[in-house]
Amino acid sequence: MVTIEISEHADWKLFEDVAQKLEQALGGYWKEKVDGLDERYWDLMAGEQMLTLHLEHYLGILVDVPDNADEMAQRVRALFE
Known about the structure:
Layout: E1 2-7, H1 12-26, E2 29-35, E3 39-46, E4 49-56, E5 60-65, H2 70-79
Antiparallel strand pairs: 1-5, 2-3, 3-4, 4-5
Helix pairs in contact: 1-2
């Protein structure tokens, strides 16, 4: 799994902005959205690949991309550089 750091800050508004940007740029749909008190895990199904947008209080906002999805990882990095 490849982990891409989006922000060091666990900002819920920024998380939702990132989610919208990912959805629009990669297409697909949100397969599952799990929200807790200080963490969130949303799974985006884009084509045959699923990535996870993750917010955790101490880690910030991250995107996890499967190992076999190098092109997807490159696209995500390019969106947030």
